[in-house]
Amino acid sequence: MPQKGRRRRGNRGRIPSPVNVGHRLITDAFVPYPEANRPEVLLEHAELEAIRLVDLEGLTQEEAGARMGVSRGTVWRVLQEARRKIAQALTEGRRIQILT
User: Into how many domains does the chain fold?
Assistant: First the structure.
């Protein structure tokens, strides 16, 4: 069963395999001050885990993929999307909501 929040891109292709997440969430949102009146940015738990493993712990994408139980290519795609979302939230003053 795929992890809640992970989904196919479009209508074709296989259903994504579940991602192993080895870190418990401390919070579920980050709110800028002052808060802009814009829609929030939704960050999936797998995206947060990829950011944590690669950018915080300094693992390679291959090592992060092995820990998460997915391929290096999947880690790369998830990282790119997470970084784009975080950059958008920071530059536009949007709230970041972490989906669990």
Answer: 1
Write down the pLDDT at residue 11. 65
Are 89 and 38 in contact, with CB atoms under 8 Å apart?
no
- pTM value? 0.76
Give the structural domain span for 59: 40-99
Give the whole-angstrom CA distance, residue 4 versus residue 52: 19
**pLDDT, tens digit, 9 for 90 and up, residues 15-57:** 766 776 777 777 788 898 888 889 999 999 999 999 999 999 9
SS3 of the chain: helix, strand, coil, percent, to 5: 40, 10, 50
47 assigned to some structural domain? yes
All residues at 6 or more sequence positions from 26 whose CB lies less than 8 Å from its CB, including other chains:
none
Strands 96-99 and 41-44: parallel
